[in-house]
Design goal:
The protein is an all-alpha fold. 63% of the residues lie in helices and 0% in strands. The protein starts with a helix and ends with a helix.
């Protein structure tokens, strides 16, 4: 989960100012958490408390109203409505990392990823994006190799990985749909040599940089086993106390099994 937050924070300054290279300073004074991190923590909090995903998403929106949410999510979160709005945006995929960590069998991960998405993103592509990311995290953390994870993504979700980051980097543009960003985030993970390289690859293609890096970072942490200490230190230093407390509690719950 910290890997997803790291990707969000590192990518935050590139969302509207894309950087088409893997060479950049990881953290600057402009690096900050956004809605990707806030809503990921909201889902973690929901799992820890046994409360509904919808209620926690709305609660965290109210607590962090200026974190950079999409317009339709803002309208939903600020209303009394409980019904979803048919979105296939990548918001369902960016926030799902806690689900991939919390449950210990794939069928439950897929079910709860669907549930976490469907409160807002009940379009088939929105659900698929969340399920794919959560499944990739689960498979990575139980020791599956990248080839097997890729095969599962193709077989289960129909995603296509007939491209490299180098090939798409010159022409890839801002795309907030699951179908237009989740495969790219996965490919950044598949091509990476380590956690940092995964984040750099995700950001280097441009587009919705914080969200793509958030998705990639969540999977990379699960695969490589941790967020490097020097990156983790920077991330902890940029989270406020309430978010930090939930993330630490979440890791403690995972450690207890």
């Amino acid at each position: 989960m910290l890997g997803a937050i790291a990707g969000d924070i590192i990518g935050s300054r590139f969302e509207r100012n894309n950087h088409k290279s893997k060479s950049f300073e990881l953290f600057t004074g402009d690096s900050c958490f956004t809605d990707d991190s806030v809503l990921s923590v909201a889902l973690a909090d929901s799992l820890l408390r046994g409360s509904s995903f919808a209620s926690k998403l709305k609660e965290y929106f109210c607590r962090y109203p200026h974190a950079g949410y999409g317009r339709r999510f803002q309208q939903w979160a600020a209303s009394d409505l409980e019904s979803a709005y048919g979105s296939y945006g990548n918001g369902s995929a960016m926030r799902v990392s806690p689900v991939g960590w919390y449950f210990n069998d794939l069928s439950t991960v897929l079910r709860e990823a669907r549930n976490s998405a469907a409160v807002t993103h009940d379009h088939a592509e929105g659900i698929k994006g969340a399920q794919a990311v959560a499944a990739a995290i689960f498979l990575a953390r139980i020791g599956e190799n990248k080839a097997d994870i890729r095969h599962y993504m193709v077989k289960q979700f129909g995603y296509c990985f007939d491209f490299t980051l180098n090939e798409i980097r010159p022409t890839y543009r801002f795309d907030v749909t699951c179908q237009g960003s989740v495969p790219q985030a996965l490919q950044a993970f598949f091509e990476a040599h380590n956690f940092e390289d995964a984040i750099r690859g995700a950001i280097s293609i441009g587009g919705d940089s914080d969200t793509i890096a958030c998705i990639t970072g969540g999977i990379a942490e699960a695969f490589y086993g941790e967020v490097p200490a020097e990156i983790a230190e920077q991330v902890w230093g940029r989270l406020d106390e309430p978010l930090t407390a939930v993330v630490r509690e979440f890791y403690s719950a995972l450690a207890k099994g």
